[in-house]
Amino acid sequence: MTTPSVNHVSADNAEDIIRLAGSGSIPAVGLGTWKIPTTQASEVVWEAMRVGYRHLDCACDYGNEPEVGAGLSRAFADGLCRREQAWITSKLWNTYHDPRHVRLACERSLRDLLAYARMRPSVLQVELHPFLTQEKLLRYCRREGIAVTAFSPLGALSYFSLGMAQPDESVLDLAEVREAAVRHDQTPAQVVLRWGVQRGTAVIPKTSTGKRLKQNLALFDFRLNEDEMKAISALNRNRRFNDPGDFCEKAFNTFFPIYE
After folding, report:
1. How many CA within 13 A on the CB side of residue 191?
2. Looking at the domain assignment, is residue 127 inside a domain?
3. Which pLDDT value is given to residue 124?
4. Beta strands in the chain (DSSP E)
5. pLDDT, tens digit, 9 for 90 and up, residues 27-53
6. Residues assigned a catalytic role
């Protein structure tokens, strides 16, 4: 765990960082690397670091960690930032939980990264978006001093191509989001991401385009009002797109209904 630099606002009132229990912080906006093709991952990561990202969300299961690492190595070599300024998340895949596999799996993910931990885990990463607001979980984490990172913060977008979401499930098309976008002269995606960070969570949207890299990072020069926040939160449907109980049996021949 490292403490990243603050680029947008003063550290005393920073919205673009999430303070962790004990010490340290995590940037409120990160780049999700799931589904970024290996042919693009290195360049996308380098460009993300160039425009100001200091938080990357990765996993061995994404199949692109070597390329992500190459992009990071290039960014560090080019002086875009220092290693200690970057927060890099990876995950230990379920099939590597046997004690004999853990060290090897972690070393594989840490190759180019050279990180180490000196305190208990203090960040919970869960699916979280306007259709799955997880109010009780957030309340519990605040009470316990656990920071929360929202994966799939834009909801259904990452799941259309996988057949795990229907076209009419895009939160970006809803009036509550689009009207707020017009009022603030922002994109619907920026409004939803702003809702996420304004709730005190980190968000890790995925993109491979330079324009959206910049848009997704530009969330700190506007603020949603109380009515807009409530209207977007009221969109909750308890709709979980990433549910192992639905896809694990087909993908991994294992029935794993962890949310039941």
Report:
1. 27
2. yes
3. 87
4. 17-19, 25-27, 31-32, 55-57, 87-89, 123-127, 147-151, 202-203
5. 999 999 998 999 999 999 999 999 999
6. 62
